[in-house]
Design goal:
The structure is a homodimer. Chain A is built from 9 helices and 18 strands. Chain A is of the alpha+beta class. The interface between A and B is medium-sized, with 35 and 35 residues. Chains A, B: GO terms for molecular function: metal ion binding; oxaloacetate tautomerase activity. Chains A, B: Pfam families: FAA_hydrolase.
C-alpha cells in the first residue's frame, strides 16, 4: 500500500519558511534547497532529479528545465557547482512547463546506487545509556549494501528469515564532493545535505548470528528507507540540534534530539575519510537515539501492517508500511 | 612502480590451452573466455572491455569490434546473453584492427564500481585449524566498499593508520544476472566467472578496534586487488579444486587448494541471496587459506617495497607492489 501523495505537500509546507540560506552553514551548495529524486506516476522506470518548490507548489523537473542536466542525484552531485547552480536557477525561475504537480510525483530515495552506505553505531549518548554501554571513544563504523535503499514512502518488507525486525530513526547526510583525509574544519564543505533514514535492523542476525558482524542484519532489501529530500546544508539551521522522532502506528517510540550525537557530522566525515576516499552520493547514517524495540521490556518488533514514521525537524518525514 | 606489461602474456599463455568450454560447467556464459577491463597506455581515463586472445596475442577491444557494446564489464554483464555472444564472436573473428597488443594495454580490475563486494570469513578448513577456530556452521559475511578495488598489477598503499597490514589470497567470483532467493542447484547459472583477489586486511583495525566490526580494517583504499581477468565459468574445470597460493617477495606464504572451502560458490550464492538481491557485477571473495601473517609466530606484516603475488590455477595471477 502506498501513502497518499498529497501528504508530501504538507511536509514541504511545514519547512518551507526555513528555505532561505543560513549564513555560516555552507556545505557543497551555498543555496537552501530541497532536492528530490522522483518518477512521474505511470513512468516507474524513469528516475528524474527535481527541486521541491515548497508550499505544495510541486517539483521542478531539472532535466526539463535544462536538458544538459543529468537524470540522477549522484550524477548531479558529481557535476559539482554547475549542477547546484542550475538547480538554484530552476527554483528561482520555476517555469510552469517544468513544474510537476505533487499529484503526479512518486518520490524516490534522494540518492540511488551510491558507492557507499556508511553507518555509525552507538552514536547517541542516551542510546548508550539505554543499553548500559560505555560511550565509544571512536566512531563504530559498519555498512549496508546500496541494494537496501528504498523510497521515503515505500514498503519495508519483513523477510521470512528474521523474527526480530526493529526500527532506528537516523539523521543521514550525503557527500557532495570527492575527498580523502578530510580535516574536521573542512568537513562540512564536503557535505551536500541531510535527509532522514530508517536503519531497519534484524536483531537476530545483527546480534546473535553471522559471527556478530552486523552487516547481514542491517542489509536485507528495503532495510534503508531514505528521504524525502536531500536538504542542502544551507537549509538546516544546526544539524546537531534537531528534534528526531520515530512513531510506530502513530505512537512515539523514539523521541530525542541530534544534540545527543557523540560524533557529529564533521567528526564522522573526518574519521571515515582516513580509511576510504569519499565520493559524491555516498550516504552516511549517523546512528539512532534510544527507544528501539530490542531494548524494550519485553522486546517489541515490527509486524506486517505496522506503519513506521521517522521525523527530523527541518529535514522531513518518511513513512513506510511494513508488509 | 608498475610491473612490466609483457609478464601478462606469460600469464595468458600458461592458461590458454584450457580455453575451450568445459561441458557441464555452464554459468551465465556458456563460452570459455577471459574477459578483461583495460585502458590503453597513455589513455588512463578510458576504461574498455576486452577479450584476452591468450598466447600473448593481445586483447580484443570489444567496443572497437562492435560499437553497440558498452565501455565497462558491469554494463556488459547487465546486457546478458547478447553481450556474451558478442564477446565470443569477437574472439572467434579477431579482426586485426580490433586487437590491442599487450605492450599497449594496462589491465584494470575486471569489474569496477560493483554494487557490492561481499566477503566470506573463515571459509577454509585449514585456515580454521590454523587459528584453533571451530568450523563455522553458516557462512560469515562481511564487506568491503567498492572504493577498495584496485587493478591486478597496481600498488597496495600502506596507510599510516595501520601497522598490521596482511595478505589473503582468495578465489573471487562475479555475479552475471540479477537474483534473489537463489537455490543452490541454480546458483552457478548466476555466476559470470571467477577471478583472483587479495583481501588485504589491517589486522589492528579488523580485530582490535571499531567494536570488532571488520569493515574498516578491510576497506582502506587499494585493499582489494582484483584480476587479471574475469574467467568465465565454462573456462574453469572445477572451481573447487584449484591450487591457490600467495607469495610475498617470491616466498610462498599461503599454499592450499580451493577443495578446502567450507562453503562453496553455490552455497555462498544461495546464502547471501536470502538477504539481498544480487546484481550483475557483484563481486564475491570466498575466503582465504592458512598462512596469513597475523597467525605466524612472530606475526609478519607487509612493509613498503614488498611484492605480493596471488595465484590460482586456471584463473590467473595478480601481483602488487606495496608502497
Amino acid at each position: 500500500m502506498r501513502l497518499p501523495i498529497h501528504s508530501l505537500s504538507l511536509i514541504s509546507r511545514s519547512f518551507s519558511d526555513r528555505l532561505s540560506a543560513i549564513p555560516g552553514r555552507r556545505g557543497v551548495c551555498g543555496a537552501a534547497m530541497r532536492l528530490v529524486q522522483f518518477c512521474r506516476q505511470g513512468d516507474e522506470g524513469g528516475v528524474r532529479v527535481g527541486v521541491d518548490r515548497g508550499e505544495g507548489l510541486g517539483v521542478i523537473d531539472l532535466k526539463a528545465f535544462d536538458p544538459s542536466m543529468p537524470m540522477t542525484m549522484r550524477e548531479l552531485l558529481e557535476m559539482g557547482a554547475k549542477g547546484m547552480q542550475c538547480a538554484q536557477r530552476a527554483l528561482e525561475v520555476s517555469p510552469t512547463q517544468c513544474v510537476v504537480p505533487f499529484a503526479e510525483v512518486r518520490l524516490l530515495s534522494p540518492v540511488l546506487a551510491p558507492e557507499k552506505v556508511v553507518c555509525v553505531g552507538m552514536n547517541y549518548r542516551d542510546h548508550c545509556l539505554e543499553q548500559n554501554a560505555p560511550i565509544p571513544k571512536e566512531p563504530i563504523i559498519f555498512s549496508k549494501f546500496p541494494s537496501a535503499i528504498t523510497g521515503p514512502f515505500d514498503d519495508i518488507t519483513l523477510p521470512d528469515e528474521s523474527q526480530e525486525v526493529d526500527w532506528e530513526v537516523e539523521l543521514a547526510f550525503v557527500i557532495g564532493r570527492k575527498g580523502k583525509h578530510i580535516k574536521e574544519e573542512d568537513a562540512m564543505s564536503y557535505v551536500a545535505g541531510f535527509t532522514v533514514a530508517n536503519d531497519v535492523s534484524a536483531r537476530d542476525w545483527q546480534m546473535k548470528r553471522n559471527g556478530k558482524q552486523w552487516l547481514l542484519g542491517k542489509t536485507f532489501d528495503s532495510f534503508c528507507p531514505l528521504g524525502p529530500a536531500l536538504v542542502t546544508t544551507s537549509a538546516v539551521m544546526d544539524p546537531h540540534n534537531l528534534g528526531i522522532r520515530c512513531l510506530v502506528n502513530g505512537v512515539a517510540v523514539q523521541n530525542s534530539n541530534t544534540n545527543q550525537l557523540i560524533f557529529k557530522t564533521e567528526q564522522v566525515v573526518a574519521w571515515v575519510s582516513q580509511f576510504v576516499t569519499l565520493s559524491p552520493g555516498d550516504v552516511f547514517l549517523t546512528g539512532t537515539p534510544p527507544g528501539v524495540g530490542v531494548f524494550r521490556n519485553p522486546p517489541v518488533f515490527l509486524k506486517k501492517g505496522d506503519v513506521v514514521e521517522c521525523q527530523i525537524d527541518q529535514v522531513g518525514v518518511i513513512r513506510n508500511n511494513v508488509v
